[in-house]
């Protein structure tokens, strides 16, 4: 190989100084010259490169990408290729071919291995990040927007398809497909918020709707941070997730409260709700709407501290007893009242009161209307009529009042011929003034009012000059409506009647409110069945009837088995649909004289008149057969069973409470027997229920009387025999029954909120005992306390435990909380979040009796726990199956990084087996029974008391 041609040009030395390699080749691509000949190329010495084709040095897989040698005076594009070194190693180079008129074919080769390695590492990192982002719920994305309106998604995870039905590659250059599926009503608002975020470079955060590929409207929630780019665009980094279920759940919760509030607050009149006291007097105001506060000029807090009579004018007190008697007799009372407002103003009000039963108590709903304007107008109008002939100006003044009032006004002459009506009258009745003037007001009569009402009206007008009351009248379109009418007689100078003035108000809306309130009071809002209150009324009427006739009737108490599974797995909407179908089937199954009621939740009751025990048992079988048939709920088919308790009148009870209690006791026995069966009430069941109630009563007193105590069972390291902790166990020394078994009283406490009070007592006692041991200079060891499902559901559980630890000045690491699998699987209480907060607090967590419940590994790996406690039932009978279960539990715990503690160790053989499997700790009678605190203190003075019991495996 020679440099003559280059040397002759006087540029070889200059070329040697370049970073790139310059190769001179012949027409067939063979190498004639290589710059930097002293170091060679790719490990080849200059003689080894001579006459070799440059393409032969290219990796075989890249040779198709090798550029074509150019014609004279031109160059090829740059190509990045892999070249093979003399030892077979691969290096990345960038190659460009030139054809110079004087020098011929020239190849410029640049080593870019470092650059390619960096690019590959970046690609690998991007691939890993993309895979990681794909695991995140929803979609992670980058959204870029330029000032001219162009926008795209440079990056988005595959979750974009799940959320929008759009693939990421569809929006890399144009974001339009994403915006096309936004709900039409939300597009403009979303765009405005994006623009605002771009202008201010502040966080974009929004909730909005989109149309899913299947046509559903879904709710989305997103958040992203903007970043200004050098090219003038804005780049957002953020996430989007679907929140439809959360939105619907929130809307359902709000709707259940909004129904009553909408009725209560969206009326033009003041409304006051209060209960009827046991002595029959009206009680304090319970709730008032804004209009009532505005009329009476009191705040809501001030009004709810008052009662009827407290705001009445002392000089115009009403006959409260007569009003209450009217409410008791008819359920309604209408009257006018003079009230003293909060600022001392006297207010004339028209009151329409309605009495109804709600949750077993009588309540009164009073509708108040400020009639000062009406009264003033009425007085002014009378004065105007008296002075009509003398003061036309005054008449025009009062005419303005006449036309502007919101109530209908009708004026007749002494013969009851209509002289004039105002616009409100025409709006209410549909008749114009031209159509009614000169006619009798009876043209709006409905024909549905008894003639005695009109006779009483004219009698009152003749004797008292005034009448008011409720009528049913007919509009021009034929529709009948309720109307409140107040008529006054106008007398002239000779005391003769000259005119009649009628004030009328349309009561349609008020009556609808009354009907809604009555429906809410008596019917279940979900199924439309009689609620507990109405069912009680019907049962008591039936008891009175059956008592006179000497005939029995039956009460069936129905409780769906495992209904919670439906709500937990399919949602409350599916659960509600199931209950509605169940109600429909029960109604079809019963006689017209029977009553089916929804008492609440998944509990129903059947009232069967003239039905004895045999008939009740027969119907119970038919009910179970009917309800066991599959229900179609959406695209799912469900089949649930039902437990039934039966009580018969009169042997099982003679009133509502005794019969319902008897049926409830019977249905509990049916569930204890395995569910999907029916049980009659018996005296034995009643005795058992009384015993349960007595235990509950005595247990409440036990906490006050100091009958409860804690015993402590040591937790032993199976490798060293050292005591490493203790479990606090509740004991009860009953003054009459002696030592009570926890198996007898703990289930009773768990059925009620009493377990929460007991749990607080246990936590305080255990922490207080640790303080006592610390003051005795004894070893400080972790103490385990058990938590029930009800305790875990306390919304302030974490704060409570933190407060107790602070009060006793106990290190959180010295407290271990034990929960059962039943607690850990209850998603309704946010188990994972609570456990994480407890772990963050520093408290240790353990799952007790592991292996006896659901034992879901998918749940287990999410929990922030320290220890799995193997249930004693597996340890005490170490046969082949139980040995396999224990081995599996220890293996799972080891794999997930948990410790294991075996309960119920009683023999050396059990201990030896557990040690061989790698179980870390143990408890049981082999070491010690649970002992009082002072005896456990003696054990703490000998921390290695059980070393002799530990033998080598």
TrEMBL record:
Q: Which reaction does it catalyse?
A: 3',3'-c-di-GMP + H2O = 5'-phosphoguanylyl(3'->5')guanosine + H(+)
Ranges in coiled-coil conformation = 367-394
- For whether the record's keyword set contains Coiled coil, the answer is yes
What is its EC class? hydrolase
Keywords assigned: c-di-GMP, Coiled coil
Q: Which residues form the PAC domain?
A: 204-255, 333-383, 465-519
What are its GO biological-process terms? cellular response to nitric oxide; regulation of DNA-templated transcription
Q: What is its EC number?
A: 3.1.4.52
NCBIfam families listed in its UniProt record = GGDEF, sensory_box
Pfam family membership, one: GGDEF
Q: What GO annotations for molecular function exist for this entry?
A: cyclic-guanylate-specific phosphodiesterase activity
Segments forming domain EAL = 692-944
Q: Which cofactors must be present for this protein to function?
A: Mg(2+)
Which InterPro entries does this one have? Biofilm_reg_signaling, EAL_dom, EAL_sf, GGDEF_dom, Nucleotide_cyclase, PAC, PAS, PAS-assoc_C
Domain GGDEF, residue spans:
551-683
The scientific name of the source species is: Wenzhouxiangella limi
The opening ranks of the lineage are: Bacteria, Pseudomonadati, Pseudomonadota, Gammaproteobacteria, Chromatiales
Protein name (Swiss-Prot/TrEMBL): cyclic-guanylate-specific phosphodiesterase
Residues forming the PAS domain are 7-63, 155-201, 394-440
PANTHER family recorded: BIOFILM ARCHITECTURE MAINTENANCE PROTEIN MBAA, DIGUANYLATE CYCLASE DGCP
